Amino acid sequence: MNKLIFGNAAHIAANKAKVEPTNPMLVHHGKAEGFFSCGECTHLMRRQRKRMVYKCLKRVSEAADHRLGYDACGLFEMKGGR
Fold it and tell me: What element of type H or E holds 45?
């Protein structure tokens, strides 16, 4: 039987899921055509708190942080109107 040691780097690496987070907006609006990220979208808003946080103006929950690297959803609009 394996002895479980918390904090052991090998244990953490073996048990940590390597799942990339996905944009929750993709469920409702699908993926944008092309290879765009949320960081290029006009709907992404930056807020300075204790740390920099990003919010999508199209998400229902104001409390949910958003990531720049998420794949853009179907509501994507390029910053600057391009």
Answer: strand 44-48
Whole-number Å distance between alpha carbons of 18 and 63: 25
Ordered by start, the domain boundaries in the chain are 21-81
From the number of C-beta atoms within 10 Å of its C-beta (0-12, 13-18, 19+), residue 10 rates as exposed
Q: Taking the CB of residue 56, how many other CB atoms lie within 10 A of it?
A: 23
Q: Please work out, in degrees rounded to the nearest 5, the angle formed at the alpha carbon of residue 53 by the alpha carbons of 52 and 57.
A: 140
What averages of pLDDT result for each successive group of 10 residues across the chain (82 residues)? Answer: 55 52 86 93 90 90 86 93 61
User: Would you say how long the chain is, in residues?
Assistant: 82
Residue closest to 49 by CA, chosen among 65, 27, 34: 65
Structure token digits, residue 74: 């179907």
For residues 55 and 65, the answer to whether their CB atoms sit within 8 Å is yes
